[in-house]
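Cross-posted from the bioinformatics board.
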Amino acid sequence: MTVKPQTSMTGLELVDRDDDGVDRAFRADVLAGLSQDQKAIPARWFYDELGSELFEDITVQPEYYPTRAETEILDRCASEFADAIGAGQAVVEFGSGSSVKTPLLLRAIQPAAYVPLDISGDFLRAAAADLSAKFPGLPVHPVEADFMRRVELPAEIGALPKLGFFPGSTIGNMVAPTAVDLLRNMGQTLGTGSMLLIGMDLVKDAAILEAAYDDAAGVTAAFNLNLAHRVNGELGGTIPVDQLRHVARWNDDFARIEMHLEAQCDITFEVAGQPLTMVEGETIHTENSHKFTARSANMLLLCGGWTPLKRWTDTEDRFSLILAQSTPPRSAP
Ligand code: AVJ
């Protein structure tokens, strides 16, 4: 396997930091987001080291069904994946999985190579080493890249048919234009005729969804509040985190769970030297998690240049995995 040598302790080689070590993109996103009428911070900033650990902990909470449901599909439908996809694919995973999902897929379809893509060199190397150990003889070619953009794939897999793998319903974190951009870039990265296996969580009873994003043990609350702690720690913030409350609410018009941090009283604070205020009840919007129906999932894929081929759900119809094929540029009519 080709694993690049580790070049820094943090492994965050793609992060642009100023002289004080502040992540410029994080500061810009937070300052822009907090100056809006509806304050907001993009969900991608949840995943510092503690945030990533808290997310792993979320996936084993009894209320958080998506990980179990998706894993069940991968496990139960292995032979159907093999039939639909065929052997000899180069599997390109968008966001390298350190999870149990990737081995289930790889075992099912007998791929010719595995290419994990991730922006974090550390995650990437850990996932690549893990997969190489589990699948001796499978060529693993990790690529350190921002998968939201078009990525140059390793020359070694140039001739192989390609299967993109994007589990976890991460696409649900994006608003429609961003999701469509990503899907189109995936098509460019993988090439016309390539396939994509993508996880998309399904619309269901609001109470079940709200519980999944507000577990009784408080892990999702800690995950959400960690973002405010991160702002304080990395951007010289003075947000009074204990005056904020985790809120998860179903937005039925947009078919999404929204997570917010709600001020429990009027507060004033600073971030990176900027004075800010929140009145009681005002929120910082921190995440959207869109949920899909069979048709809305197909519509999104079609908008992004992918033709749905086959769809699997878990036995309780909570989560879907969809196989799609990159649509030729001028398909009829
Ligand atoms: C990582 C996008 C799949 O939206 O369900 C879990 C993130 N946020 N609980 C999701 C998340 C709160 C998660 N994804």
